[in-house]
Amino acid sequence: MAKTTISQKYQVVIPKEIREKTPIKEGQEMYIYSVGNSIILSPLPKSYSEKMLGLGQAMWKDIDPLEYILKERSEWDKKYAR
């Protein structure tokens, strides 16, 4: 955790110890959004598809995708069979 001050123009300096722990660079564009009473800064990704690649993979760790799809189709067929 580090401490900083808001300037009269509402500018914030990111303390050196925080900058050194993150991959941010001078001039880099950032997202800024609020969550409750907190303000979050997040670097804009160079590529959104690369940023999202692998998201949620832990959720599928012990699941065979083909087996899962076949089970879902079977359930769907049972529920909506005519």
How much strand? 5-15%
Instruction: Write out the strand line-up for the largest beta sheet, numbering strands in chain order.
Output: 1-2
What's the helix-strand series?
A: HEEHH
Radius of gyration: 22 Å
Uncertain residue segments: none
Q: Count every beta strand, where a strand is a DSSP E run of 2 or more residues.
A: 2
- The termini sit apart by 61 Å
* Class derived from helix and strand content: alpha+beta
Q: What number is the mean pLDDT?
A: 89
What is the 3D form? elongated
Return the domain count. 1
Helix content: 25-40%
Biggest β-sheet strands, sense, barrel: 2 strands, antiparallel
Alpha plus pi helix count: 3
Give an overview of the whole structure.
- There is one protein chain.
- The chain has 82 residues and is α+β, with helices and mostly antiparallel strands.
- It is 30% helix and 15% strand.
- The protein is built from three helices and two strands, in the order αββαα.
- A hairpin with a 2-residue loop joins β1 and β2.
